[in-house]
Amino acid sequence: MQAFDLSGKKAFVTGASRGIGRAIALAYAEAGADVALVSRSADSLAEVAKEVAAFGREAVVLPCDVTDRDAITHAVRQAVEGLGHVDIVVNNAGGSNFMVPFKDLRLAGWDKLMRLNLDSAMVVCHAFAPHLLERGAGSVINVASVAALGAPFLAPYAAAKAGLVALTKSLALEWAGSGIRVNALCPGWTATELNRTLWEDEQASRNTIGSVPMQRWGTAEEMAHPAVFLAAPASAYMTGQVLFIDGGATTA
Ligand SMILES: NC(=O)c1ccc[n+]([C@@H]2O[C@H](COP(=O)([O-])OP(=O)(O)OC[C@H]3O[C@@H](n4cnc5c(N)ncnc54)[C@H](OP(=O)(O)O)[C@@H]3O)[C@@H](O)[C@H]2O)c1
Predict the structure, then answer these.
(1) CB 185 less than 6 A from any atom of ligand 1
(2) Does the annotation count 157 as an active-site position?
(3) Where are the beta strands (DSSP E) in 88-165?
(4) Bridge-partner residues for 61, per DSSP?
(5) Whole-structure pTM value
(6) Which of 15, 22, 29, 68 has an alpha carbon within 20 to 30 A of 88's alpha carbon?
């Protein structure tokens, strides 16, 4: 057994068109897994599928809005049909496109971020539950955030990610005896499209990473390699854990 080898494994990755999700999908393909790629933009997914194919692995492209429950349930079914089975489920699609003082928060904004960052992962887990339980094997990785510990002006995002951590631990406990592991990966500041306005502006970038002990932004690849670890035999005795990849930010 190779500790970090994913040969023969089949993975389902949401938010795979760019950023951390794309990096995870490619790292899985490099480690030997076939991958179902999910996001809204079919064109970008097709580009990622070509990169997966360059590693000699199969990619199934599933354009889908993860906030649409019927669509995501259908995508889960298509992934199982297309790949034969699924071993690894990564709930990565998410983010927040606004920061606002809580008193000015529009309640519709709360609902939107809950649907994107928490409900979507719950529906994916719910749709995969019969398949994973029947196989008695699997690794679920929920991409949360350091914001799960609390973040000013980001209350809906932070609360959704904290909910995702609680969902992770609940399913880990419920499924531990069934061969299914469930862990969360919490990125710190990672330079992607999500926060381009911050890292492109020199002053904003300095302010952002001022609180990071490593004094720099993380990269999508630096999130992807721990995601390989969480999917692989290397973490076989690990479930219900929350892995912070944040340059030391939550330690300081
Ligand atoms: N970057 C950071 O600093 C950071 C820090 C902590 C946590 N995170 C978390 O890491 C995850 C990935 O973030 P990222 O930085 O890689 O963001 P990103 O570059 O904005 O990528 C987000 C991905 O999610 C997909 N997506 C967004 N809304 C979707 C929807 N409704 N349905 C389907 N797919 C959707 C996007 O694809 P389409 O647009 O094609 O749909 C894209 O593939 C998120 O959960 C985020 O909260 C990021």
Answers:
(1) no
(2) yes
(3) 88-91, 138-143
(4) 37
(5) 0.98
(6) 68
